Amino acid sequence: MTLIPLNLFVAHDGASKRQHITCVYRCGNACSKPVPNRSANAYFGDIARAVSRRTLLRAGGVTVLAVGAGSVLAACAGEQAPAPGTTAAPYAAPRAGMDFASVAPNTEDAVVVADGYRHAVVISWGDPILPDAPAFDVTRQTGAAQRGQFGFNNDFAGLLPIPGRRDRFLLVTNFEYVTPEFMFPGYDAAAPTREQFDVEIAAVGMGVVEVERTADGLRPVIDALNRRITADSPMLLTGPAAGSDLVRTDADPTGRTVAGTFANCAGGVTPWGTVLSGEENFQDYFGAAEGSPPPPPVQADQMARYGVSAEPTALRWETFDPRFDLTRTPNEPNRFGYIVELNPWDPQSTPVKHSALGRLKHEGATVYVTDDGTVVAYTGDDERFDYMYKFVSSKKMRDGTGPDAMAHNMTLLDEGTLYVAALSGDVPAAQIDGSGRLPDDGAFRGSGTWIPLLRSGADGQGESLVDNFTAAQVAVFTRMAADKVGATKMDRPEDFEANPATGKVYLALTNNTKRGTAGEPAADAANPRNENKNGQVLEITDDHAGTAFTWELLLVCGDPQAADTYYGGFDKTRVSPISCPDNLAFDSHGNLWISTDGNALDSNDGLFAVALEGPQRGEVRQFLTVPLGAETCGPVVTDDLVTVCVQHPGESDEHSLDNPQSRWPEGGTGTARPSVVAVWRDGGQIGV
Ligand code: FEO
Ligand code: CA
Ligand code: CA
Ligand code: CA
Q: What is the Å distance from ligand 2's center to 595 Cα?
C-alpha cells in the first residue's frame, strides 16, 4: 500500500482554488456578493441552545456543572490539548471496497487513478448521442448540432442497468452551465452572437445515453432511449406553485408548462427508476439591460433572497430571449429552482418540476424509502448560510416498473410534507471557538428538529404551515418561509446521501469563508470553523419519516496535519487530505465516496472513499484525481466500475479555448472537453 506524503500543501489565502471564471458562469459571483440570507436566524452558538435536551438528560441533575465544567476544561485544555478520538489507534487493514493505494495529491493535466486500475473517457461534450447528430467540431458548432450531442459541464450522473440486457446501462447526466470562453474560438464576452446563444441553450439541461460495458470501460451506443433535454424542453410544473400567479407568464398563462431546465447540479436515482436533478444557480440566467426600468418592486426582496438582480448577466441570454429579461418576464425566475424528475425510460415523457419540494438553490435530491414505502427526499440549499430540507411523502412507493407503477411513483414527490432543519449542539458553547478545536468529549455532535413548512396534496393542493405565507408562496419563496421558522444556517449544504446499509444520512457542507466574519454568524458545533475553507461532512441519524434527528460531524476537512481537522477519530497521519466535499455516493460495502469541488489544499480535485464503521471509521483514501482546473462530480460506484464526471477541465481566469491550460482529454493540440470517465480493474472488483 502507498501512503500519501503529508504536509505538502498549504491552504491558499482565499477560499478554494476555484477560479473566478467558474464563479462568473456557475454561480453568478455569489461568493463576492452579500450573503442573501439576511434573516436573524441563529446559528446555535449560544449556551441556551448549545446545551440540548439530550445533553441535559445525559447530565442528569448537574446541568449547571456540565456547562461550567466544559468552560473550565476548555480554558485549561488550551489550543494544543490532545483531543479524545484523535489518538493514533493501531492500524487496521482497509475495509472492503477501500483496499487500493491512495492517489497522492497532484496537479497533473490528467486523470490519475489508483495503481492497478485502468480508466477511459466514456463520452465528452459534443459527442453525438442522437442518430443524425454530427461529430464534434469545435469550429463548426450550431444549436441544431448541440441538440443531438452530449452537453457541456456534466455534473450529476446516474448509471441505470437496463432490465434484461446484460452489460447495458442508461447513463443519465445533467449539464450544469456553459463557459463560452472555453467553448467558442475567439469568444467576445461583450458581444455574444445569436448562434452562440443557440448553442448554449442546447448545451445545458440533461442527457440520456445508452452505454455498453466493454473490456475498455463503457461505450456509448446510439439507441432509441437516447435523449437531450435543453433549456427550452417542455416541462410540467406540479405542486402548490403550479398555476399560481407567481409563475404565470405571457408565454405560459397556465403557469404549468415551463420551458427547460438549467443550472442543474447534483441529483439522484430513485428506487422507481427515475432521475432527480437539482436546479441550483438559476439566478445567473435572468437579468436586464443596463438602464432598464426596475422590475415590479413587489418582488425586490424575493429576488434578493435568491440572488436575482436586474443587471446584465454574464451570458446575456436576456438580449436574445425576453423570458430571460426580468423587465419583460419578471416571473420567469420563479419557474426555476426546483427538483426536476425525469423518466429516462420513455423518450417522450415530460420531465416534472416538483414544487412540493420547494424552490431554492437545490444542490440535488436523494431518496430514502422507509420500511412501509414512505419516500423521504433530502435536499440541500447550496448557499452560504442556507438550509437543509427534506420532504416526506404521504403516499407509498409502488413496486414494479410497469407504466402504472411509474405513473403512481412519479407523483410521490407531489404529495407530502416539506421540512427544514433546525440543529442544536451537545457541545458547551465555550468549547466552540471557531478554530475547529475538537470538543472535550471528542466529537461535534447534537440533535435537531425538522420544522414543517408546507403540506402538499393531490392536484396541486397545498396547505401552508408558515404564518402569513400561502401554500404557493412557501413553494416559490421557500427560503423566506424557512427564514421565518428559525432554520439553522449551514456552511453550504451540498449533496445528501443515505447509507443503504445503516440508513444514516450524510451531507457534504462544502465550505463557507464568510462564517464568523463581520456581520455574519459565528461558528457553531455543526459548522465549527470561522472562515471555513475546507468544509465538513455531517452524519445524521434521522427518524426518516419523523421530525427528530441526531447528528455528528464525520469529517472536518482540510490538511490532516492541521489542528482544525478531524477525520472521524482515525489516525490523521494515515489519511488522504480532503477538502471541499461536494457529491456523495455509496459502494455496496457501506463506504462513503466523496467528490470534491475546489480543493483548497493546492491539489487537483478528486474522488475519495471514507470508511464509516469499525476501527477504520474516518479513514480517507483518494481513488482518483481529475485534470487541471477540473472538478470531480457525479460519482457512481459499482462493484466493478466507478464513473465520475470531469467538469470544466482547464477552466482558469488566465486561459481560454484559444489559450488553453488543459488539453484533456484530446491531448496534442486538442480541446479540453468536460467528459465522463470510467475506472475499473481488469478481472477485479473495486477496492477488494
Ligand atoms: Fe453546483 Fe452546489 O455546486
Ligand atoms: Ca455541487
Ligand atoms: Ca459545489
Ligand atoms: Ca459540483
A: 9
H-helix or E-strand containing 68?
helix 63-77
CA of 582 to the centre of ligand 2 (A): 5
Give the containing element (helix H, strand E) for 584: strand 581-586
Specify the 3-state DSSP secondary structure of 80.
Answer: coil
Residues making up the chain, counted from first to last: 688
Phi then psi dihedrals of residue 144, to 5 deg: -60, -40
Rounded distance between C-alpha atoms, residue 418 and residue 478, angstroms: 10
| Range 421-435 burial, b when 16+ CB lie within 10 A, else e | bbbbbbbbbbbbbbe
**How far does the centroid of ligand 2 lie from the alpha carbon of residue 176, in Å?**
10
Query: Look-up: residue for cell 472555453?
Result: 182
H or E, element range at 514:
none
**Strands 388-396 vs 493-498: parallel, antiparallel or unpaired:** unpaired
Give the closest residue to 647 by CA, choosing from 604, 601, 593, 681. 604
The pLDDT tens digits for 512-570 are: 999 999 999 999 999 999 999 999 999 999 999 999 999 999 999 999 999 999 999 99
Whether the Cβ atoms of residue 590 and residue 611 lie closer than 8 Å to each other: no
Distance CA 571, CA 82 (A): 13
Atom in ligand 1 nearest the alpha carbon of residue 27: 1
Cis peptide bond N-terminal to 665, omega within 30? yes
Query: Ligand 4: distance of its center to the CA of 246 in Å?
Result: 29
What atom in ligand 1 is closest to the CA of residue 281? 1
Would you say 383 and 512 are in contact if contact means Cβ atoms under 8 Å apart? Answer: no
- Listed in order, strand segments (DSSP E) in 147-263 are 154-161, 168-175, 205-214, 217-221, 227-229, 234-238, 257-259
Nearest alpha carbon to residue 470 among 258, 236, 247: 247
- Does the beta carbon of 381 sit less than 6 angstroms from any atom of ligand 1? no
Question: Ligand 3 being an ion, which residues bring their Cβ within 5 A of it?
Answer: 582, 597
Enumerate the H helices of 78-139 as residue ranges. none
Write the single-letter amino acid at 73. L
Give me ligand 4 centre to Cα 631, in Å.
7
Render pLDDT for 592-651 as a digit per residue (tens, 0 to 9). 999 999 988 989 999 999 999 999 999 999 999 999 999 999 999 999 999 999 999 999
Instruction: Fill in the DSSP letter of residue 344.
Output: T
Query: Can you read off the three cell numbers belonging to residue 503?
Result: 440508513
Q: What does 408-437 look like in DSSP terms, one character per residue?
A: HHTTGGGSEEEEEEEEEESS-GGG--SB-P
C-alpha cell at 267: 441529483
Q: 247 with 333: CB under 8 angstroms?
A: no
Q: How far is CA 144 from CA 92, 197, 200, 357, in A?
A: 56, 12, 11, 33
Residues in contact with 500: Cβ distance below 8 Å, sequence separation at least 6, in sequence order: 586, 590
Q: Where are the beta strands (DSSP E) in 439-534?
A: 445-456, 462-464, 490-491, 493-498, 505-509
Tell me the three cell numbers of residue 659.
489559450
Is any ligand 1 atom within 6 A of the Cβ of residue 494?
yes
Q: Are strands 234-238 and 352-354 parallel, antiparallel or unpaired?
A: parallel
> What kind and span of H or E run contains 361?
none
Low-confidence spans in the chain with pLDDT less than 50: 1-14, 45-89
Residue with cell 425566475: 333
What's the mean pLDDT when you consider all of the chain? 90
Q: Verify whether ligand 1 is closer than 6 Å to residue 265 (CB atom).
A: yes
Question: Taking the complete model, does pTM exceed 0.85, yes or no?
Answer: yes
The secondary element (H helix, E strand) that includes residue 670 is: none
CA-to-CA distance for 512 and 490, rounded, in angstroms?
8
495 lines ligand 1 (CB under 6 A): no
The pLDDT value recorded for residue 23 is 87
CA 416 to chain centre: 23
